[in-house]
Structures are given as C-alpha cells and as structure tokens.
Write a structure and sequence with these properties.
By secondary structure, this protein is mainly beta. It has a six-stranded antiparallel β-sheet with strand order 10-11-12-13-14-15. Strands 24-23-22-21-20-26 form a six-stranded mixed β-sheet, with no helix packed on it. It is elongated and about 90 Å long. The protein has helices spanning 2-12, 137-142, and strands at 14-16, 19-24, 31-37, 47-55, 61-70, 95-98, 107-116, 120-128, 133-135, 151-153, 158-165, 169-178, 181-191, 197-206, 209-218, 225-232, 239-245, 249-255, 261-265, 276-279, 284-289, 292-300, 303-310, 313-318, 325-326, 339-341. The protein has two domains: 2-218, no CATH class; 225-341.
Length: 342
C-alpha cells in the first residue's frame, strides 16, 4: 500500500494548490524536470502550464518554460514520456535529450508550445556549454519555423528540417553544423501545385555562394491527361508532346532526352484563354511566346515538325519519321477552351 501511494504521489502526479505536477526523471543523467499543469487544463489536449529543468546533483532550478499548449503522453507507469522524436508527423515528446551540435555532449530540447507548421510542436533548444545548458537561438529557429523538431545525422554532422504547404508543396533543408552554428547547405523544394507539372528546385550553398537547379517533369499517367500529338525532333531526339487536360485545355511541352521539361506552354494554366490557333485546312497549330512564333505542322504520317520564327529568322525543326504518334487532326474533334479555329 505504501509503495502504491508513493508511486501516485511522486511519479504519476500530485495535486498541489489546484495544480497537477509531474516529476520527470530518466531522460538524462544530469537533469530532471518538473511539469506543472494549471487547474482546469488537465484533460485538455493542449495544456497550460510550465516546465522546470533542475540540476539533479545541486537541485538548482536552471530553466523555466511557460506554455499555453503543452502536449505530452504518459507511459504505462504514469510517467511523462521523453526522448521521443517520430518525424515528421509522429509523436514528439515534451523533452528530447541528445547531441544536437555533434560535440559529444547531449543537449536539451524543451517543448514551448505548438508554433511550428500546421500548429505542430515547437521547441526551445539548449546547448550544453562548459558549465550548464545555454539557450541557442540558431538551433531553436530550426525547431520553430519548420514542421516540428529537426532531425540529426551524427555520421554527416548535419541537421535536416521539413516544412510544407498543403498537399502539394514541400521543402527539405539540410544544415551543416560549423563552429557550433547550423549553416544551410542544401534546400530542395518539391512543387506540385501546377499539375500536371512537377517542379523540383535544388539550391546548394558553399559559404555565401549559392547555385540553383530547377527540374520540371510531367506525370502523363495522371487522371485527365491525354496525349494528342507527339514526335521526336530529328536533330536532337528531344520530344514534342501536345496534350490536353480534362478535354478542355491544350498544352505543349518539349522534353529533353531524360524526360525533363525544357519548355512548356502555356506558362500559366487558365480556361477560356486564346493560347493556340488551329488551322483545320492546313493541319497546323500555332502559338506565340514572347518574341517567338511556333507553328506545329502535320502534313502526313511521316512529315511533321515545328516552324519556329524568331528575330526575323525561321527554323524548321523536323520530326523523326518513325517517332510520330497521333496528329493535329485529332484536335479537331475536341472542344477545347484555349484553342481558336481559323
């Protein structure tokens, strides 16, 4: 009976002045915690209270963090779970004790609320200094401005973060810890907001210099995408594809040999826009982009190509005979919003 009461009082929780307190032990050899939840918030998902970090040897209070939105789980013994970081969307505990700056000494992340993306958990980061834990603004920023806690890789001495906007835009960042400071070295943005085009922008940093590479692809297996006319250019084997979206909007794309998009038209997606002109008697499809005019022709099954007129010169980019599929005549039967007939 005495052991049971001791467990209830010291481990699970104690009611004190209308507040609920949890003693947090076992997450660190050097520190313990005391979590206090204010009266009336005990059963809320987001709990108002404070957490104190205490030196286990001297019993001195080192850190106090207040929050209106603590979240935490208890284990089967009624103790607050710690050192859990299931990224990016899983459980992230109120305390995470590990080496964040790769100096061989463990540091401490303390939840301060739900300030990261989509009202997710955010943390204050305290780096173990020569004598005690010290708040670090640079590491804290990585646990505030992205989606939840960051992830560390001790083999490469790097930190990775992730953030997103809806289903179709994600950003992944990699930081190298240099002189005890995380420095951005790689950032990858994946953008699928302009379907069926998918754009990946990769930016790398070396010192203060950056390089950017943009790669665009098309998913032709996506619902509503139908190829109308396609061929490879005889000169360089790049692929021309004319396709429609939802049987309403016509698009043109020039693909490199690795299937990435070199050029696409129209630049922006819009219904009821006169992007293309179809000449039904000559089987040509014309569009303009900046100072260039493109006329796709389809004389017969083996004679197709593009006439490109720019700066007073005309270039005839002929199709490889055995690569032609479909034809401009197939556009005639479609009622497309961005094509006008002449």
């Amino acid at each position: 009976m005495n052991n049971y009461l001791s467990l209830v009082i010291f481990i699970i929780s104690i009611q004190l002045f209308g507040q609920t307190e949890y003693v947090i032990k076992g997450f660190s050899e050097k520190y313990s915690g005391l979590l206090t939840i204010e009266k009336g918030y005990e059963n809320d998902v987001f709990k108002k209270g404070k957490i104190r970090i205490i030196n286990s040897q001297t019993k001195k209070e080192l850190i106090v963090v207040n929050s209106d939105e603590f979240t935490f789980n208890l284990d089967s013994n009624g103790e607050v779970k710690t050192n859990i970081s299931e990224l990016p969307y899983g459980e992230q505990s109120i305390l995470i004790y590990q080496d964040f700056n790769f100096d061989g000494k463990k540091d401490l992340a303390i939840m301060d609320g739900q300030n990261s993306c989509y009202h997710g958990p955010s943390f204050n980061i305290y780096i173990e200094g020569e004598k005690t834990l010290e708040f670090n603004a640079e590491f804290t920023r990585l646990a505030q401005e992205y989606c939840g806690m960051f992830q560390t890789n001790s083999e490469t001495n790097t930190i990775t973060t992730m953030t997103k906007s809806g289903c179709c835009w994600h950003q992944f960042s990699t930081f190298k810890v240099i002189d005890n400071t995380p420095k951005l070295m790689l950032q990858i943005e994946e953008d699928a907001t302009n379907t069926p085009y998918y754009t990946t922008t990769t930016t790398t940093w070396e010192g203060n210099k950056s390089q950017q590479h943009i790669e665009k692809t098309i998913d032709f297996t996506e619902d509503g995408i139908s190829e109308v006319f396609a061929f490879k250019l005889n000169k360089n084997q790049k692929k021309v594809i004319v396709f429609n979206i939802n049987n309403r909007v016509l698009n043109y794309a020039l693909l490199r040999t690795d299937e990435t998009v070199e050029f696409a038209y129209p630049i922006t997606f819009a219904y009821q826009n006169n992007d293309f002109t179809l000449n039904t008697s000559q089987d040509t499809l014309t569009f303009k982009n900046n100072d260039a005019t493109y006329k796709i022709y389809n004389i017969n099954a083996t004679n197709s190509g593009i006439l490109v007129k720019t700066k007073g010169k005309t270039y005839n980019l002929k199709a490889s005979k055995h690569s032609i599929s479909g034809g401009i005549s197939d556009i005639k039967s479609l009622n497309l919003d961005n094509v006008i007939n002449e």
